[in-house]
Amino acid sequence: MIRRSFNDGWSYRRKPDAFQALLGRANEGWEPVRLPHDAMVCRERDGSDPEAGHRGYFPADGYEYGKTFFVPEEYRQRRVTLEFEGVYRHARVYLNGDLARQRAHGYSNFYVRADHLLRYGVDNEVRVEARSQDDTRWYTGGGIYRGVSIVVGGLLHVALDGVRITTPVIDDDVAVVAVATEIQNESAVTRTVEVATEIVDANGEILARDAAPVTVFPGDEAVLRQRLVVVEPRLWGVDHPYLHTCRTSVTADGERLDEQTTHFGIRSMTVDPRRGLRINGETVKLRGACIHHDNGVLGAATIDRAERRRVEILKQAGFNAIRSAHNPVSKALLDACDQLGMLVMDELSDVWTRSKSSHDYADDFASWWESDVRAMVAKDFNHPCVVFYSIGNEIPEIGGPGGAVLSRRLAEKVRALDDTRLVTNAVNGLFAGGPELLAPLAAGSARLENAEAEDGAAGAPAEAGGAENLDVNAAMTRFREFMPLLMTSELVTARTAEAMAYLDVAGYNYLDSRYELDRTLFPNRVIVGTETYPTDIDRNWRLVQDSSHVIGDFTWTGWDYLGEPGIGRIEYQSDPETLAATMPGYQGPFPWLAAWCGDIDITGHRRPASYYREIVFGLRSEPYLAVHRPERYGEPVRLATWWSWSDSISSWSWDGHEDKPIRIDVYSAADEVELLVNGRSIAKAPAGEKNRFTAAFETVYEPGELTAVAYTDGAETGRMSLRSATGEVRLDATADRTRITADDRDLAFVTITLVDAAGNLHNTADRRVAVELAGPGALAGFGSADPRSTENFFDTARTTFDGRALAVIRPTAPGAITVTVTADGCAPVTARVEAVPAGQAEEPR
After folding, report:
1. Is the pLDDT of residue 30 over 60?
2. What residue ranges define each of the domains in the chain, with the CATH number in brackets?
3. What are residue 398's DSSP bridge partners?
4. Which residues contact 191 (CB under 8 A, 6 or more apart)?
5. pTM higher than 0.85, yes or no?
6. Any idea where the Glycoside hydrolase family 2 catalytic domain is (predicted)?
């Protein structure tokens, strides 16, 4: 089959009223667009709708996409299929006015068989409708946000997703590669064909080959199973992600009827409570990051380079595993994880049959779950990076008999489709415990509200009422100190016993207090921390290291995301939202946009928490300087959620705060840290694991150089310095690559910073910067990491945040793209990117 991109030539608009056609306005409002495309992120946010808070205060709406394409006459004797990798949500696909396919889930890959609705030798029209509502607890985006392909094949062909590869036997000398190839015959006659399979290494050398005849009756399919031997195989692993290629060809009477190329890895995987997770016989502890599907300033648009860049940065930050929260990830992200050595836990859904939002996927789950499981497994099967299928996240019905039955059905369906991976489920004890467990929290919430009201506070809290109305995340925020005791209760033990029994690995959301308990209660259980608080990583990682039955930790979150706004915020007593509310809510009010809980912000910049985690993981020997914002020194904190980090950045440029007090945290695994200002020793303080890897200092701000020196057993083990920015503010614009591919899959990321002549960051000199493009490129997104910004990601002028902004450029044709950046008081600067034909760019995408 020939697969081509189908992303160009589309137009879109907000879904019009059905009566517009009758009024003669059916063709109004269309705008040209290149897919993948997020129709929601370009909309103006509005804080007047509290129901929009979960999705970052973006409006919900319906969207319509259309494209005209020519179908040659010779396609009458071929099969034409459209592949949609993701449409959010309730997709309906029409061909020449007739409904061809629909899909409820917004994250499932699906195919549209087109032959019976096509017109040959003339233009055809495809139209796609989608709508997003109050249907998740995060920012979803809207429209055709993942790629579309057109697949054209003969009447006899390899089935779509029809090559499945496993590696059942692996030792030092030999690996057996088992290849199952499904051949479909849609012709009117019986055909006998030869199917040849080649295993090829990264250099193009053929390592193994097998060929066999296959007879297929008309309208039937046949599966050929071949076992090929690879001598002295190179294995795929986290540190050495070696990929092989399987080349499949189908021929008859000397004519090649079809061919397909499939990438895969040779690797083994086992798990048990004594040796943990082992890949290729070696124990691997999962340094995991939960991630959402959006790409920050791009919104939900899933462009290949953005997915690869995200994996690159997460890998650099010390993570070796990703959990997709809470939906199947894109094909592009899986490709990047294969290539870079990142393990994946792919998750099916956030809900089953009980809703968490007004119009969420629970409305459709009962009818669609089997199809969605098939789509997820078909997408993942040949990717060596995928080690887990998670069948759900914090499912409300998990502790009851109905949930238990459905759980088993889901798990067994996954195993029937793919028995080579591990099945898990991210279980939250609050949901499993049900109303009996939540009632004390609701009562405590009411008492706390009454006490604050009696103290003279005005207004009403965001979450109130009985157990049935208490938001679980709000409960976890307010009563964090009681959670370990609640989670180790006999009620949670009983309610989660069956939920865990059908899993290969038990997924624990915020249940780290049960790790030691469940080693005794359930000695055969293997546990993974599917979701944990970022501030607990030092304690949790010690548990992971010391507990063979606990195979890893996934923090919430590795990468910041749109929606669930402000769940990681810190509120000070003088903040406007604090003064206006009796009790702080779980989410931030408008204009909060991002969750602000990621180790890495929405532009891809690593925050202090990321370096702390790298030190805890034992991957960084140098200390790290995190400086608290001096303008907030001594101010009471009203709210710091359990997803918050400290309000600090790594900078020693604080104009206007000279000789004023300032707090500095130094993260280090060393025994002791010394702090120096301009070469003068301020103090020494203990660090290391016993002190939660943090040495805290207070001094007064003095411009110049701030240095931290780490010592173990009296010997220096590393140092880090920050220098104050001085003099005029300059612009710097640096592209992540100078050569990119001129197609719909690649991007250039241009980092814009405010610096001095020596390159030191002017983080207190924020200002509006503008970008202008010349050449074959378009601005795909422009913004900062400011979690409260009211600016639009498609404006050509944006305000920096802590001295930084990011512009993302999408090529439109081959040629030189020049990005000119200007700002008041700064000399203009340029970044140049060359868009080149495929195969000439700097690196894979």
Report:
1. yes
2. 2-153 (2.60.120.260), 156-267 (2.60.40.10), 272-579 (3.20.20.80), 624-723 (2.60.40.10), 730-836 (2.60.40.10)
3. none
4. 156, 185, 215, 216, 252
5. yes
6. 277-425
